[in-house]
Amino acid sequence: MRTFFNASQILPISQAVINQAVRLKQLRKMSLGDSIIAGTALVYNLTIITRNIDDFRWITELELVNPFNDT
Q1: Does the pLDDT of residue 5 top 90, yes or no?
Q2: Can you give the residue range of the structural domain that contains 31?
Q3: Looking at the chain, which terminus has fewer C-beta neighbours within 10 angstroms, N or C?
Q4: Contact of 52 with 68, CB cutoff 8 Å
């Protein structure tokens, strides 16, 4: 885990991220954490890597990867 976190970049929760998170929460009921994750990915054009892709699948602009899926 230490290697992973050392290689990770910390991204700020900017006003643009907050705006995206609010927009997503207005479109569909989702947790605050998920909306911030999705908003961050949208603002910074990032892929979300998660085992729980069902919470994000409806956001068509997002690229999702389930690392536990063989396909």
Answers
A1: no
A2: 2-65
A3: C
A4: no
Report the 10 Å Cβ neighbour count for 25.
17
For residue 15, is it within any domain? yes
In the numeric block, the tokens 């908003």 are attached to 39
Six-digit token string for 36: 């911030």
How many CB atoms lie under 10 A from the CB of residue 20? Answer: 21
Mean pLDDT, rounded, for 5-19: 92
Which pTM was predicted? Answer: 0.85
CATH number of the structural domain spanning residue 22: 3.40.50.1010
Distance of alpha carbon 67 from alpha carbon 71, whole angstroms: 9
**pLDDT per residue over 31-57, tens digit each?**
999 999 999 999 999 999 999 999 999
C-alpha 39/C-alpha 43 separation (Å) is 6
